[in-house]
Input
Amino acid sequence: MIAATVGSAVGLGNIWRFPYEAGVHGGGAFLIVNIIFVLLLGIPVICAEFLIGRHSGADVCNAFSRFKRGRSWRFIGWMGLCASILILGFYSVVAGWTVYYIIQSIQGFEHVHNADDLHNMFVQFSSNGWMPLLWTVVFLAINFLVLIRGVEKGIEKMSNILLPALFVILIAFTVNSLLLPEAGSGLEFLFKPDFSAITPSVLLGALGQAFFSLSLGLGCLITYASYFKPETPLVKTASISALLDTMVAILAGMIIFPAVFTFGQEPAAGPQLVFEVLPSIFMNMPGGMIWSILFFVLLFVASLTSTISLFETATAFLIGRGIKRFKAVCITMAVVLCLGVVCSLSFGPLADATIFGFNFFDFSDYVSSNILLPLGGMCSSIFVGWIVERKVVNAELLGTSTSTFKLAVVKAIIFSLRYIAPTGIGLVFVFGLL
Ligand code: PFF
Output
């Protein structure tokens, strides 16, 4: 299950969302705040979700009720259900884009010669209405087939092969990007923090990115941890997952930003950033077509392992409410499909339809990542920090270990869950949202 957990964490959040959010929020400042949030809040909250999942052995619907005084915390499960469906709506659209880009890679990006062509190609494709919709539906249909067969084991095997492959290919691309003429400017943008750029919206964005990327705050990790073995070390697993996940995001940044500056593209381009920049990298590499196909296929599979974890959370929730698996998958899929259609059309026919100034795609992303996930994480941390009996927390996090180092780490985690995570998330909300 550990590979599946990392498989859930590593996905479009690292390779598509991280560079685009970092680009919009000023690069280095965003990265540094993001890393602080992962260490200070992310790892403790992952431990909290793991603990809730493993101790209860249940889905998000029932997990909280299995604890003393836990029944009134079941609302976290409902919040998680809403967040997972919202995320699936826009995530499937982006995953659909990756499928389209696999096809384009196979065709060798015909008619594309420079960065402007790539930009036009993306705009034409995404605003077309039918095309992105078609690929979203194709992606969802693949999810449906996987889910109906209940091949969680297959997903785990896939993660075992995919993750190392993705890692290797990312390192190869990083080396390639570091050799580009403007690599220095790209790295400076990503790693040199301009502290004056840290505004409340950068803080909120970095918090949302940390939770989104770690698959945190909607009960996905509760669901997965309910399948963990009693001897799985929770703190170690949480740290490894956070470390790998952050490394993948940083590598993605090291690939994208040198290319952005070399090919004269705009770091703050938004959701299309990666799709406009990556092909220009491939076109300038020997054997570019093969690299391009390989990369988009890996990205597609990484998205699939993440969406499966999101679907699994939502369907396990419905199953926990007495609905049969097939029906639960169908209900979730139907709602996600409707949302996916609306999100997909936000780049074309529905571009002018806005909620609070956001189109549907950005609205789903903003509400789920920046509000629902941190809120869910905050509630889980308060639950474990203040409600769950201390002997249960110690037994789950420490096991039978008597090492003083582990004891200190567990104490620090509990301290974060009681004080740092709730106040930190609360403060970011107060400043970022008001
Ligand atoms: N962490 C995934 C990614 O980075 O692509 C997205 C995700 C999966 C978010 C599962 C939330 C979740 F529960």
